[in-house]
Specification:
5-stranded parallel β-sheet, alpha/beta, single chain
Length: 498
């Protein structure tokens, strides 16, 4: 089986890691060259990417296509918020993509993603238009007010007028124009599912609060989906960087269902019950809501939702704090949430792993932007646990974590059924990557760098924990570490010789 994968951009989590997960399932991958993809400061050439896809499909190299449309339509996820391309320009690109099916000699399943443009509550314009550095939080609050008023909810007297005096009219108009353009395209993508051009679509909602123009757009897309009876072919949920992984999981689950008449069945356990209702940072919803949405996106079935309840394929263990989700990143003006007391949760999580009789997917949601150090210390000291875990993540948002962990589990189950050679080796490479990135780097080493993307400092800070992770997984891979976007938000973990 050959999968055409087009990621959001060239970051390791969006470009490299999906290939590693696909290898666990025994799937051959065709991707545009990494240099062709967009990055932090460089947009991809959309037409070059479209041409690449067209050629791969025409040559009969592709059995299915999983495409992040943000790359083909805008040049990348970040560019989708920055580009001045018009609706006419982007619609013309979408029309080319809608013809992909007609280029294939065999029926070609096409799964696509398109982002609901985010709105961040900060003054960081690294991934936004320049004016976000001055008006970011005001735009977030203004957007919230507009949504609340549209829902006939009250706001503080004079608040909207005050915000509109502080944000220049031309900036407000530019922001609304950009949102209108992207939402118009999302409506066209939804119609493309309805007319059969695409088999399945994800509308991913990046950083969000509980209210905002992005949430309003999400609600409108949900209504359109229901009215068109497309609930089984369209998913709309909080997520972004993990979306290609989630599409891989959905594709594998769909194939398993067609081959065996049964989707992957998952049993969910919250290590402590309180975790389910904890607010998920950057998502505007509870952790429980994220879990449900990501299970659906993965194409899996909850054990209690199937008549054959005893036949679960895997156990999802959800680790988190009792009252709130911490954060390994502390933004100016916000409280420091990097030191939570999670001892009770750690004890309960480790007990669940020890008692597990099914393969385990462990999602660490105690913190955003990194794993729980207390849990990781207990986990990597428990060597038998390494033989139970087939999926793990603990990075960035809850959606990122859950979606990527479920994708690895789906790949393992699919590959196990197919008898993929050296599958354990491929699985351990993925687990090693996540443990080193999410724990050794994000939770521990990153804070010691003070924003300096120095590979020498990184190697010195991270080396001891890498050794612990290697012992836990019983592997000693020679690795190379780098900062692909020349910033400390993410690292790349490369395996020498592969």
């Amino acid at each position: 089986m050959k999968l055409l994968l087009v990621p959001l951009d060239d970051r390791p989590i969006t470009y490299t890691y999906p290939q590693m997960v696909a290898a666990v399932a025994g799937q051959e991958v065709i991707m545009p060259p990494r240099a062709m993809m967009g990055s932090l400061q460089k947009a991809a050439n959309s037409q070059d990417l479209i041409n690449f896809c067209q050629n791969a499909i025409k040559q009969g190299e592709v059995d299915a296509a999983l495409i992040c449309l943000d790359s083909l339509l805008y040049g990348g996820l970040i560019t989708s918020r920055r580009t001045d391309a018009t609706v006419k320009d982007i619609s013309a690109r979408l029309d080319q993509i809608k013809k992909f099916k007609s280029l294939s000699r065999e029926p070609l399943p096409i799964y696509v993603q398109s982002a609901i443009m985010r709105i961040s509550d900060n003054y960081d314009n690294t991934e936004e238009k320049d004016y976000w550095a001055r008006y970011g939080r005001e735009l977030f609050e203004w957007s919230t007010c507009l949504h609340r008023l549209a829902k006939r909810e009250s706001i503080a007297p004079g608040l909207l007028e005050s915000l509109e005096r502080r944000i220049p009219q031309d900036i407000r108009q530019d922001y609304l124009d950009t949102r209108f353009r992207n939402f118009t395209i999302n409506q066209a993508v939804l119609k493309s599912v309805e007319d059969g051009s695409f088999d399945y679509a994800v509308f991913s909602q990046d950083d969000s609060g509980a209210f905002g123009l992005n949430v309003s757009e999400k609600e409108r897309l949900e209504s359109m989906t229901r009215n068109a009876s497309l609930e089984k072919r369209i998913n709309i949920y909080a997520g972004a960087d993990e979306v290609l992984l989630s599409m891989i999981s959905r594709f594998l689950s769909d194939r398993a269902a067609r081959a065996n008449g049964k989707r992957f069945v998952i049993d969910t356990r919250y290590a402590v019950p309180e975790v389910e209702q904890v607010a998920s940072r950057y998502e505007g919803q509870s952790i429980g809501t994220t879990i449900e949405a990501q299970i659906k996106a993965a194409g899996m079935i909850r054990r209690d939702a199937t008549p054959d309840a005893a036949q679960a394929d895997l156990l999802l263990i959800v680790h988190g704090g009792l009252e709130k989700q911490g954060d390994h990143i502390t933004l100016p003006g916000l409280p420091d949430l990097s030191q939570l007391d999670t001892q009770k949760s750690v004890k309960a999580t480790m007990a669940e792993i020890e008692a597990a009789t099914l393969p385990v997917v462990l999602v660490d949601l105690a913190y955003a932007n990194g794993a729980d150090p207390l849990l990781m210390q207990a986990l990597i000291a428990d060597k038998p646990a390494s033989n139970k875990i087939i999926g793990f993540a603990g990075w960035n948002t809850s959606g990122n974590t859950v979606g990527s962990a479920l994708a690895l589990a789906a790949a393992y189950l699919f590959g196990q059924k197919a008898g993929v050679p050296r599958q354990k080796e491929a699985l351990n490479r993925c687990l090693f990557t996540r443990l080193v990135d999410d724990y050794a780097y994000q939770s521990l080493a990153r804070k010691t760098l003070n924003g300096d993307p120095s590979t020498q400092k990184l190697a010195e800070a991270i080396a001891p924990t890498i050794k612990q992770v290697a012992r836990f997984l019983d592997m000693e891979p020679p690795v190379r570490l780098s900062f692909p976007w020349k910033r400390t938000f993410e690292i790349e973990i490369g395996f020498e010789g592969g």
